[in-house]
Amino acid sequence: MFPQRTVALSMLFLLPSMAAGAAEFDLTSRVDAVTVFPDGASITRRFTVEVPAGEHVLVLGDLPPSADPGSLRIAGAGEGRLTVGSVDARQPRAFERTDPERVQKLEALRDERLSLDDRIGAERLRKRAAEALVAGSTLSSGERGLNVGEARQAFAAAVEETNAADRAIRQAEQRQRALDREIATIEAALRQQPPQRLEARIAVEAGAAYRGELTVTYAVRGARWAPVYDARLATTGAKPALELVRRAEIRQETGEDWSNVALTVSTVRVARGGAAPQLASLIIRFNEPPMGRSSDALGGAETRGYAAAPRPAPISPPTVAQESARMRVQEAEAVVDTGGFQASFVIPGRTTIASSEGARALRIASTAIEPQLISRAVPSVDPTAFLEARFKYADETPLMPGRVSLYRDGVFAGRTQVAAATRDDMVNLGFGPDDLVRIEHHVVRRTDGSAGIISSARTEEREFRIVARNGAQSPRQVVIEDRLPVTEAQDITVETLSGMTAPTTRDVKGRRGIVEWAFDLAPGGSREIRHGWRLRWPADKVLAPVQGRS
After folding, report:
1. Which of 259-273, 336-350, 497-511 has the lowest mean pLDDT?
2. Which DSSP string do the residues of 425-470 spell out, in sequence order?
């Protein structure tokens, strides 16, 4: 490290002419620190600088093409004073975008084509030599010229050599056409290939010889992290215990590997913009039909429907391996820095994450919770009771939505999703069937008829009997959920049958018509619930098919 008392690094926007005629220094840098956000990352590279007094341009040619040129920032320390005038970043020009393998192959193809030109020239010379054997001056040379036998031999040799030369020329030209097509393909690929790197040019001025270590920080979009969780429920102790392990699943396709870096994950979302969207006025008018057609009142599906934008599907993380049953392996956890409007998790040690090689999950935090256990059932759909752990979220760090791997008493119990939660919010996690709580659902009555012999109304009645039994050796809190019909028509009435068990809660969590009964069951105990309703509507109308009425 360089002593801080000798540091004088300034960021000034000087005149563009500062770098004119300045010496250039090609430098290499390494990725030293990375902060990953849910929708991007901030990369810090470190490099050493040693320059004489004067104006210079520091060239970093190893930045990834995914780096945001406008986000480049320079900092550092060293011996002496160094003023940074400007930081410019550009993609290399097309002729600089070298792909060594393609360039090497292109050169080999061009060399082969040149050798074929030489071969074709030689074969044409051979052909001309063969033609010279049967030229008039050759046949008549000497005192009496060639005799008939010698002439025939000369003609045969000329024909053979000419045919051989033509075949060789034709084969060479065919090969040249194939080479031309291959060369054109590679040249087009070299012209169109994306840049392999981004070049940063840093204009600096040193008042005296300067030696120090600088950093360049920039933003990239090709990286993200998502929370994944392990929920480990223990039910065999005196009280139930839940360990909620938080992990960061990191993916990056930035085009550069993060090797042995200081890694931090942050909850800040950097790609959502700086302000809330501006809402346009919602103006309602009567529909103006074309001339000659009757006017329709406002209220059609096209005039009053407002489509909501679809929400993105959650990312499905990979399963986290179970810990050894013989010896518990301790996992290092991140140091949490919570302040203001964000939470940052500093991963201990150094980390390596390669580009475009899938996801890596790192443990960042864990919480010990004493949950409330509930056996919940919806017997009209499935008589199975499901064990649910319910607790009030108590951490200052928000619980981000994500995938949860469930473990009950050391056994993998499946996967689920957890919704976002902040301090004092209630969180529910299901841990699979509770086979010790038995639920029965019986249809007692199902009638369809009229209110009288001569009546203007029709009725429909449904009555059910639900029985819950606790076969466990410990008490159980049981919640039974069902529903009542909901109508939006004034001439349809819904009535609860007399003698029915009053629900504990109506319109559960704002869901219209959903009711639930919550009660405690002692070991070996049982509870009966009677549930039923009556529909009444005009006899001259027919009810539309509704799920659950059959």
Report:
1. 336-350
2. -EEEEEEEE-TTEEEEEEEEEEEEEESSSS-SEEEEEEEEEEEEEE
Tokens of 396: 């200052």
Q: Is 272 left (phi over 0), alpha (psi -120 to 50) or beta?
A: alpha
Alpha-carbon dihedral sign for residues 352, 353, 359, 364: positive
User: What's residue 313's pLDDT?
Assistant: 44
pTM: 0.63
Tokens for 500, please give them. 């029915």
Q: Residue 40: name the closest of 226, 200, 259, 312 by CA.
A: 226
- Measured CA to CA in angstroms, residue 174 lies from 117, 167, 169 at distances of 12, 11, 9
Degrees, nearest 5: CA angle 63-69-70: 145
Rounded to whole angstroms, how far apart are CA atoms 134 and 146?
11
Closest among 525, 183, 233, 210 to 389, alpha carbons compared: 233
Q: Alpha-carbon distance 32 to 400, whole Å?
A: 28
pLDDT, tens only, 432-454: 999 999 999 999 998 876 655 56
Bridge-based pairing state of the strands 223-234 and 505-506 = unpaired
Helices then strands (H, E): number in the chain? 4, 27
Residue 12 phi/psi, 5° resolution?
-125, 145
- Which of helix, strand or coil describes residue 312? coil
Q: Going by C-beta distance under 8 Å and a sequence separation of 6 or more, which residues neighbour residue 488?
A: none
Backbone angles phi, psi at 127, to 5 degrees: -65, -40
135 vs 105: which has the higher pLDDT: 105
Arithmetic mean of pLDDT, 215-224: 92
Query: Residue 241 pLDDT more than 70?
Result: yes
Place of tokens 């071969």: 119
Give the residue among 403, 366, 358 at the shortest CA–CA distance from 227. Answer: 403
The pLDDT value given to residue 344: 87
Instruction: Name the E strands within 176-253.
Output: 198-206, 210-220, 223-234, 241-252
The pLDDT of residue 216: 93
Torsion, CA 338, CA 342, CA 348, CA 351, rounded to 10: 180
3-state secondary structure of 222: coil
pLDDT bin (cut points 50, 70, 90) of residue 286 is low
Alpha carbons 218 and 264: distance in angstroms, whole number:
15
Of 19 and 535, which is predicted with more confidence?
A: 535
Query: CA nearest 483: which of 531, 515, 512, 509?
Result: 515
CATH class of 437-538: mainly beta
